[in-house]
Specification:
It is a single chain. By secondary structure, the protein is mainly α. It has two domains: about 50 residues, Homeodomain-like (Arc Repressor Mutant, subunit A, Orthogonal Bundle), CATH 1.10.10; about 150 residues, Tetracycline Repressor, domain 2, CATH 1.10.357.10. Helix content is about 75%, strand content about 0%. It contains twelve helices and no strands. The termini are far apart. This is AcrR family transcriptional regulator. InterPro entries: Homeodomain-like_sf (IPR009057), HTH-type_TetR-like_transc_reg (IPR050109), HTH_TetR (IPR001647), MT1864/Rv1816-like_C (IPR025996), Tet_transcr_reg_TetR-rel_C_sf (IPR036271).
């Protein structure tokens, strides 16, 4: 009985999340209220509060789902050799953001989640991005601080999305701009990387080489 109730409660929570996401993507952030979601589900507001303490908690869950969805799509697109995977993931990032602009805006809205919760929500795609850059660095024998490089790559792609939204850029043009940004970034990291993006040779060596255990 307990398992059935837990399953039913989880299903109800997912329905509320799906309804909130639907309202967000169709009508924008200002339309996402507990009353509006209740109307979407043809229920009363108290039923929504059975699953979420308040609207902020609901929005936080939507943000987490948005980052998970972005990570899944980027991961699925990232096939091929390391450089190709980076470009495919970058294009998917931009395409996904522009396909769901209201969700993307919410994900990047710093007033919705504090820094710690936002970092946890984005941890999966952050790890994936660092892994992609790590593979690219290994392929070219580059000593790269992948965490800092991933932050720079995110900045490039976020900038592309913002420019595309502001200018009404066509999707094909936004992809080309993303590719140009990634190309420039990788060229800079290869030819003349900033000092704070380069690990020393000692840091780049495997642990077994720098800290032999015997």
């Amino acid at each position: 009985m307990t398992s059935f109730r837990a399953t039913r409660r989880a299903a109800g929570r997912e329905r509320v999340l799906a309804a909130g996401l639907g309202v967000l993507e169709r009508e924008g952030l200002d339309a996402v209220t507990v009353r509006r979601i209740a109307a979407e589900l043809d229920c009363t507001a108290p039923l929504i509060y059975q699953h979420f303490t308040n609207k902020d908690e609901l929005l936080g869950e939507i943000v987490a789902q948005g980052f998970d969805r972005l990570a899944e799509r980027s991961r699925a697109a990232a096939v091929g050799h390391p450089t190709e995977r980076l470009f495919r993931a970058a294009r998917e990032y931009v395409d996904s953001a522009l396909a769901s602009p209201h969700l993307y805006r919410l994900m990047m809205d710093t007033s919705v989640l504090d820094a710690g919760r936002r970092s946890r929500a984005a941890s999966r795609i952050a790890r994936d991005t660092e892994a992609l850059l790590g593979d690219w660095a290994v392929e070219g024998c580059r000593a790269l601080d992948v965490r800092r490089a991933a932050e720079l790559l995110w900045a490039v792609l976020h900038g592309v999305v913002q420019i595309a939204v502001l200018t009404g850029m066509e999707p094909s043009e936004s992809r080309r701009l993303a590719e140009a940004g990634v190309t420039s970034l990788l060229a800079g990291l290869t030819a003349n990387p900033p000092a704070d993006l380069v690990r020393s040779v000692r840091q780049a060596e495997p642990e077994s080489a720098t800290n032999p255990k015997y």
